[in-house]
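Two folds, back to back.
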Amino acid sequence: MKYDAIIIGSGHNGLTTACYLAKAGYSVCVLERQQHPGGAVCTEKMFATEKDPGGYAVDVGSSAHFMIHQTPVVRELMLESYGLKYIEMDPFMSYPVPDGGAIHFYRSVEKTCESIAAFSPRDAKAYAEFIAFWKRINQGVLRSFLTQPSPGSLFKEIVKGQIRDGAMFKPGESTDGVRKILSSYRQIVDEYFEHESLKTALLWFAAQSGPPPDQTATADFVGWQAMLHESGGKRPVGGSGMLTQAMIRMLEKHGGEIRCNSAVSEILIEKKGSSADAVGVRLESGEELKSRVVVSNAHVQTTMCRLLPSGTLSERLFQRVRNINTGNGFGMVIRCAVEELPVYEACPADPDIHNGLQLLVPSLNHLDASIGDYMAGRPPEKPSVLAMTFSKIDPSLAPKGKHVLNAWAQWHPYTLSNGGNWDDIREREADKIYDMVVHYAPNMKDKLIDRFIQTPLDIERRHGLIHGNVMHVEMTFDQMFMFRPTPELSRYKTPVKNLYLSSASCHPGGGVFAAAGYNAANVVLKDLKKANRWFFF
């Protein structure tokens, strides 16, 4: 059988592309090397015991869903009709203040400002101004995220936004506005705010994109906060992987096929004169599958440097792809089954603290120390932690009376400066992360039932994320928009005819966004329609 499209990898971007192609009537086959589909948006049952035979629903990749709700994907693919149900996280994140109380970030800007005002009335007013400024900027940026990138696309969308929605900058503020956009996110936070706890919370959440706070042209990592107040944060009932499960059901309903335990060893190439055409794939089993187009949801370096036959690419492009900055690791996570929810000493009776993300970084100095250890090539002595306890808002994740605790920590270098191996230190580093939770919530001491550890090396092995970078490639300005992953590959096409890219290696980047898969689908559909017209005539 020859398919219209073969998708390499069942991550949410690949499934997004697959669903749009199947919806348009094309025959689609998705190939997944793992036993379970979903890539880094996958939930598995773990920690089953005789007493709790059902175990716990544990995410093995991304957990909180923010960005995808700023796209049309869930609505256009009608994923709720395929079993996807979201729970609103409100507040979507909270910061337990070391001196007592908590700063909550609600979907409502007004309610968020009220929470901030309890600690700093001046910063509450500044936060409202901060959100208003970055909302104007990011309405245009979001539109550029949902199109093929080009040198003029970002500027064009911002200009269109100004015409439609009003000026991006207030009169006389355009020069300073551009300066802000090109600043680091630490610079922006320092300019707007005074209270250390608010600054620490904002910096730590912005750091989830990867680059450290002092990196130039990263201001919008904190400025994107404005868009979170627009869309909110949500969690699928049953776990993060319920998103990809709904996509699979939609795909199969439209005649698509998904095959797990089907690792691709090579993209099949047919030489036609001076050009090379992708005509299918060869599996590690030796089986060959043919298709009109091949779409890779795998890491760009895996696709272009490992899956293509040697000599397919020009030496120049091969070296450019090989030299893409994937960074030196990112973070690690422990997925825990626990006896009870953390009771944070700062806010022991707070009813909202477990609704969303919990930002566990005591101070700016603590955050900087974690970064300093990372830059020196060693795991942080005292990690910066982001805790998630979604079994509070979704009891289906754990046996009655028990809970799931995910604790993500940064910064953890993939290559250790002392020549060490992550397999030798994984338990020790996992203990440090759990100890930080206990530091904030002493009731959690001895409440750990079991845990699943994912170091940077584990993340690379399981998800194919080179160096354990969950964003695929670094989210620095020189690797964003029309530069991501390289200028030659930024429009989801490759020099190999009928070979496309759809992963987070591409514009606009990582997170549970689906924008790369959405954009790639539009490119592939356009090309397939052109080919169909040519064939008809």
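---
second:
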Amino acid sequence: MRKFLIYSSLIICLGCADPEPKKDLPIMGNLPVGEYPVGYKTLFTYDQTRNGVPYSDWDGNLDTEYDKESGRQFQINVWYPAEQGSGQSIKYDHYIDLMGRQTNFDDTEVQKEFARRRFISNTRDLGNKEDFTEENLNQLLNLDVYARLNAKMISEKFPVVVYPNGGSPAFQSITCEFLASHGYVVVATALKGRFSSGMEISGLGLEVAVDDLEFVLSKISESPNVDMNNVSLMANAISSSVCASAIARNNKLKSLISLEGGFPSSFEQRLLNESVFYKPENITVPILVIYASHPSIDPKYTFHLKYADRYYAQYSQMSEFVMLNYGMFDSFIPNILGEHGGDTPRGFEEAHKLILRFLDQNVKAETGELFATDFVQSQNEIDTTFVLSGIPSPPNIALLKDLFLKGGFDKVDSVYQGLSAAGNTQPFSKSFYTSYRSWLAWKKDESYSNRLRLYELAFDSYPESARINYYVAYYSYKRDIKQKAIDHYRKTLNLIDNDGDLTKTEKERITAYAREELNELLASSQ
């Protein structure tokens, strides 16, 4: 199989530039494109630290024609502000054909035919209907797109938006072109699973996909026109939860857009909670949640992310997946994903105006209120908007260790009290207390006084935690504060059966210790 060199597709097609396309392209609808012409390129590359994987369709059928030894395959699609008049015009079929080159990079007629079959099949699956035909597909293939292939990039740095999708680049190209025209480098890729191109719907699957995102970011950082200090993530479906998981691991990322994603669902929040990284204190960036009416979606499932400014916009007349290219394709093939109560192309356009406004305010620091009255009133398809403002987040554990070393536990207590006064009723997480306790135990607290103070703070935040009550009791016991120890041992035993934070083994261990130490205290008091 013919192999592609990394960045081989970046070579500029000198002498093949043709006139600039018109700005009123039908595929862009009424989207207000920006000041920049848009270039487009595809990187075919490998992560050589991992094995390659076969292609898997949505049902799990494998296509084993791939080069396993070259490494994990990555097709990275990039849209960017470009120089006027450079590059080559392309049509939408270019994006669809790339769907067939996710794991096998060969550019053949066989691969193109495979990609077009997949697009038809995927469209039918997304719309739960069988009437999207090859004739319908042909209506889309010949549409002119706004971007120009291998156009010369402008020699300045632009903020980055990464938009993963399993149907990349055919499913999100309009969004990517629109944002690139407004001064963003937009990156699209298909995230994969451990053993195939299909992402795994599990907590482990999210972590594997985050590793893919990190690899893509590493590759994009090599380009001279990207500002890696201003990277945002945007996604739909379960990829939105992958992006949330990535932000929990990487605090350099600047914002998150859940575009009709599963992120505000109880199911995906359960998956996210399987990660040791997914803690409220690790998510402090602004979040925009765009959602339609769906039985599984409810903003309340993200209300616990209290350190992030969260912006919610409901498009009640839209439905799942119309914020992909399909929303605009409804103009060419009515009800392409089924019937809608609202004006689907207009809903798509209005949502994208909101996305741009959110990015400009949170990445480019433009002033203004996201849901300003005049803006919302002009958006006919928005049903509901509201904002939940984040509260001050605690310092990370490294800073809190440093504070202790330089000023003693009083400094840690001062941070806690300051956050509490600012409205944070639980300034530190339960897991923080466990980690900090272990750190103090190493030659920093021979008298147990600092650990007792630590768990007094923990009890202030989590009075119904059996584990925390146990440690208040234990360190009071070690400090010979007998009545306090007795009271908290008793409370531990009263709470432990119903404490969902503890495993069966933990409950058995804490119960045994609490009873033994309580009996010892009671015996000594007689």
